Amino acid sequence: MSKTIMFLYAMTLFLFLLHIEKSSGVLIDCKTVKDCPTSYTKIYRCEDNKCRFSFVIGL
């Protein structure tokens, strides 16, 4: 039982740190919105020649 809990704790910590690393990614250079990546869960905008996103809530 304790090994299972420790495994779940380690996996949660690992995934949390991986998520933080991934979400703090590098801003992509752009000139127009078409230069930004497409996504169903994020809305990208080109501001100050960098792609910035906001999340879509309530799909």
TrEMBL record:
The keyword Nucleus does not apply. It comes from the Eukaryota. The keyword Signal applies. Keywords: Signal. Residues 1-52 form the Late nodulin domain. Pfam families: Nodulin_late. Residues 1-25 form the signal peptide. InterPro entries: Nodulin_late_dom. One of its GO terms (molecular function) is metal ion binding. This is Nodule Cysteine-Rich (NCR) secreted peptide. The lineage of its organism: Eukaryota, Viridiplantae, Streptophyta, Embryophyta, Tracheophyta.
